[in-house]
Specification:
The chain is built from one helix and eight strands, in the order H-E-E-E-E-E-E-E-E. It is mainly beta and 121 residues long. The longest helix is centred in the first third of the chain and has 6 residues. The protein starts with 7 loop residues before the first helix and ends with a strand. The mean pLDDT is 92. InterPro entries: Cupin_2, PKS_Associated_Protein, RmlC-like_jellyroll, RmlC_Cupin_sf.
């Protein structure tokens, strides 16, 4: 996988559902994931890892219990490990996520929005 060139726009064009991260590539023990976001996700945390969001287009709001963080194109924000958060977007957002391999999208919350990491079609 590391020898192949990946195109973010091509990868996003193949994703058909929101909130289902797809592996774009991996580096060391981390996955670089592409995801389409729309609506509200669940409140959750990742007790053992930070989570990096990079917005490619659209406006993503990451709700924290004490404030909202608003990200636009090319903005990056790291949610520290153990911090409860809920991403939401009023319109479609395309984003990259950087997380250790095996990180579950709903963290410790689980539930019906939990999505296994998917490979690009």
């Amino acid at each position: 996988m590391s020898d192949d060139v990946r195109n973010i726009d091509d990868a996003l064009s193949r994703i058909t559902a929101y909130w289902q991260p797809h592996r774009l590539t991996s580096i060391n023990d981390y996955d670089v994931k592409v995801v389409k976001i729309h609506g509200e996700f669940v409140w959750h945390d990742h007790p053992d890892t930070d989570e990096l969001f990079m917005v490619l287009n659209g406006e993503l709001i990451i709700q924290l219990r004490d404030r909202d963080v608003v990200l636009g194109p090319n903005d990056v924000f790291v949610v520290p490990r153990g911090v409860e958060h809920r991403p939401k977007a009023d319109e479609e957002v395309h984003a990259l996520l950087f997380e250790p391999k095996g990180t579950v999208n709903t963290g410790s919350a689980g539930g019906e929005m939990t999505s296994p990491l998917r490979e690009l079609p």
